[in-house]
Amino acid sequence: MTIEECNEGEWGDLLAASPQATIYNTTAFLRSYGAKVKSFLYKQGRSAIAGIAYVEANNCNLATLPFQSYSGLLFRDLRSFPLHKRTSMQFAATEAFADWLFSFSSVDLVNHWEVCDVRPFLWKNFDCEDLQHFDVEVRYTSLLRIDTPVPSMQYRQGRRYSIKKSERHGLTTVGSSDVGALDELHRLTFSRQSIERSNAEAEYLQAICSNLLSANCGKLYLTLLGQEPVSASFFGIDERRAYYIFGASHPEYRSTECGSRNVSDAISNLKAIGVQEVDFVGVNSPNRGDFKLSFGGSLVPHFRVRKT
After folding, report:
1. Distances from the Cα of 68 to the Cαs of 54, 115, 160, in angstroms?
2. Could you read off the pLDDT of 61-81 as tens digits, one per residue?
C-alpha cells in the first residue's frame, strides 16, 4: 500500500470513478493557476483507492487556492463493498495521506462533503500537545436539486418576490463568453464591500472561466439592462452537477434585483440542458451565505483540514 505520483490519464480515471470528484479537481481547472499540477494515488496492489491533486508551490506548501472550493481527498467508488470494509479502506487511505501530508510545511485542504471520516487527521500526534497537528474546521455549502418540475418553488418567498420585482425593469439574461464583463462586475462587487482584489485573483478568475469555457465545462450568464451587463454568474459543470463559482452585480443596479434574476435564469437554463443539481459552493460568509441559501438548497457540512 503506497502513495505514488500518477500521470494525467491515471488521475482522470480516478475522477471518473470517484463520487467525490468535482470540477475543482480537474486539470482544466487546476491549470488556471499557471503552475505545474501534481497528482498522487494511494494504491492497494494495482488498484487506486484514493488520491489528491494540487498545484505545485516552491515553498513546500499544499494550499487551497483562491476560488478553489474543494481540494481534498477523493476515493474511488467503494459502494460494492460492505459498509465495514468500505469504512476500513477509506480510513487506511486517509491515514496514509495524513502521514504523507505531514511532511509539507503547511497544508490547507477542503474536503468534499462525502469525505466525512477525518479521524486520521484529528489523531495525528493526538497525545503529543507540543508537536504539530492538523486542525479540522467545519464548513458549509448548499445543494439544490433542480431536476424537479418547478425548481423555483423551492425558493424562499422573499427570493421569489425579488425575481418577480425584477420583471418591471426589462432585464434579459443571455449565455455569453464575455469573461471581461464578469471580471469588471466582480471587481465592482468587491469594491462595494470594501475588499480590494489582488491582480492574481483577477487573473485567476479570467483563467478559470476561459479554461472551463474552452473545455466545454462552464457556462457564463450575463443579465442585461438594455445592452449593459448588470449581473453575471459563472457555473462550472461536470456530469454530476453545476457549481456556482462566480457571481457579481453592478452596485448601481442592485435595486433592479438583477442578481436574483440572473441566478434564477441561470438555474432555468441549467435545468434545460440536463443539469440535476447546483452546488452553491460555500455559505460561510454572512455577506453572501444567505443569498445562496434563499434559493432553497439543503445546508450540507464538510471539512477543512489545515496544518500550519
Report:
1. 11, 17, 30
2. 888 999 999 999 999 999 999
